[in-house]
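phosphoenolpyruvate--protein phosphotransferase
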Amino acid sequence: MLEVLRRVIQEVNSARNLDAALATMVRRIRKAMHTDVCSFYLFDKETQELVLMETIGLHSQAVGHVSLRVGEGLVGLVAEREEPLNLEDAPSHPRFRYFEATGEERYSSFLGVPIIHQRRMLGVLVVQQGEKRRYDEEDEAFLITMGAQLAGVLAHALATGSLSRPALPGGQALFTGVAASPGMAIGEVVVVAPLADLDSVPDLIPTDVEYEIVRLKEAIERVREEIRAAGERLANRISAQELALFEVYQQMLSEAALSQEVEKRIREGQWAPGALADVVRRHVQYLERVDDDYLRERAADVRDLGRRVLAHLQEETPQVPDTFPESTILVGDEISVATLGEVPRERLAGLVSVRGSSTSHVAIVARAMGVPTVLGMVDLPLPRLSGAEVVLDGHRGRLFVRPSDELKTRYESLIAEEAALVEVLEHEQDLPSETPDGHVMPLMVNTGLAIDTTVSLRKRISGVGLYRTEVPFMIAERFPSEQEQARLYRDQLESFAPLPVVMRTLDIGGDKDLPYFPIDEANPFLGWRGIRVTLDHPEVLMVQLRAMLRAAQGLDNMQILLPMVTNVDEVDDALRLLDRAIRELAEEGIVSPRPKVGVMLEVPATLYQLDALAERADFFSVGSNDLTQYLLAVDRNNPRVASLYDACHPAVLSAMARLAEESARLKKPISVCGELAGDPAGALLLMGMGFDSLSMNAPSLPRVRAAIRRVSLDAAKVLVSEILALNTPAAVRSHLFTRLSEWQLAHLLPPRD
């Protein structure tokens, strides 16, 4: 059954339109399950009805004409409950309803499964049998799997506009991912195709067909030369049988094979990379379906050849175009900062990526630039999005493809309101961050890029609460030398002097890899990251500590922060290395006083070791992002569970309140440098809990300052006591919205549904 399943999925994915995909699926399912009927009902959100869209076994004239409400009949019952229904004698079920147009009175057995995409019910998949039959567990599992596969196909069809039936007006589609940088934008998609990725090449109509054919032939010839040269180099080192594979490659590249088919596709109206991708995918899918083992293995060869030819085609094709729409939404499988730099800033309205996380380099840059960004959008049909109009919501991690006029109008209004608010708040950014009852709440910034070190910023903050030293490491092609690091750190320290700058030691691992120091782990967030990496590589940490100490000469505004601390031994080991670095520099004639050293509280274990840590550390800094994901066992960068990640979870807020209380008892300064600090409602809670300072990305400062200047410390403390009595994240957020509305501050929060 697994082999049958694999082949059905391949055929469905290779279908060029939704109708073909549906027809293929119902026919293949009926054959695989040896049943009489297979039908698909599409859910129309507007009319709240299920419409028969495809069938094999029922009357074909019923397609598009038979519809039923959710809850009506057995199909409606499956949609209502959103769970499978398996009946041996369907007509005897109290919810059975007969539809004369379908001719289904002949069938006794019924198995229906809901089709759900990202918690949204899209339709129902049904099989039926004439004689009484109890579909077994394997049958049920097979149909559920096919339903999950069809959910992806439908989502793609919605996005590409191919599902433009009356049931779904306009073909509007919604995709969700991880919100990485706040803000909203309306614009036109420009797809960035990664090098040699056949599945991500966008469809484009060629402006010069003959030119496309010429460059295709040139690319194929260059690959033939590469393979010929490789074969000659290996002639004396591999067997004749293995050498014959190079001849097979040459045959595949011959005029009669690949070139001719791709040329035909170009003449049909597809540019060379897209035509190549189409032909290679078709060959691969065919080869993977055949029964012959040898031919199945050749699928990998065809795919490899396709990638080689595509790489040469892309050498002369810019990854991004020369001209951009006025409001460009850059979309790609994985967008690099280098690609980001190729788009004129005034035209870059937003970013969307299939891969990436909220702490990736591109996300950090996007936040610094104030560009709305959503990452981890796994279901995007990249090749079909080029040129599509979209609405991007960076607050909630949403992308609306081909939005309705009503939705566009709503977001145009929200974007205008947000711009007006920014302008209003700008006028009070040089005023102190002080509550109406006189409590000063120091606001600091998180930095890591040159773009963050602006003179105007220095006048508005109390210092840098988190300087991410790993960002320069991520840009480099090797570990920066001590001198290079010292220059970078000196620039940062001088830019903000005499304000304090908290420099976090190298925090890589998890979702932050260095290209020259890859860490490949099954579960990176519970693996080798932060202080664990640098203590295992003391030579790396020593160079960094020495560079920091050199950079701080004569400024006296540097503090050091240790990330991902789990136990006291790690702090002791790091402090020993710091003392050694101070001694080594003294031997070189550079006298460096020992800076203040802090510990990041982001692993739940540290909550229970505060007394011991306080004996060693000068201050604490809570990394609320990681603390939240570890407390809730949720990878915040996984779009499938991202909705469970919530810094307003009662357990997280209770832990934060306890940390503030314990730090006060231990007389240790404590700050927060996670996203919760940059949320106006979150900032009020943290202030009420007793945190000494808040550090956030620069674009968050205006809203947080505005909230603090309008709410007294006493009111914030009352708010904390009310919130800690609540039991669910939804109740917490609802209460926060109510209170901020009463204080006439709801406009500072992200837009609500």
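thats it. The longest strand covers residues 120-129. Residues 160-170 have pLDDT under 50 and may be disordered. bye
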